[in-house]
Amino acid sequence: MAFKVNFNYPKYDDFGKVTGAFIGISDPDTGDNLSANVLGDYRTVGTSEAITAVLDNFYKRNFADKAMAESVVKIDELDAKTKDFAKQIADAVSQITALKDEVMAEIKAETDKNRDIIKLSTLTLNDALAQIDELMELMEEQNNDIIGNAEETDRGGLEHE
């Protein structure tokens, strides 16, 4: 489509300032004509800008309702997807929380088990150390007794000679 500008009449306010234009365009191949009131000064703009302004105005006026209806459908679709996604996230968070609770319970059970083993090991080690101390004391006493008996024997033997 090759539109041409048929007319471009400026519109003025009460103070003589240009506030818009009434522009008419046509397609010489099809004979289609289109005109629109547009905002802005189009006295010095090029032909393509004037044609674009008329077409934009036409599309906005005539297709806004259709575009609005389509956007409402898109918004509804996005809303449904958002709700579905939020539900998926909530389900995932719930599953992660349950898994975390299960793992934490296992960790606590293992920690308690290890604590009990350490307590038992410590008690056993302390008992073994106490028994070793008793044996060492007993051995020292026996050693002292043996040394004492040997010294007495040695003294006694020297006196008899």
TrEMBL record:
Q: Which species is this record about?
A: Streptococcus moroccensis
Protein name per the record: Phage protein
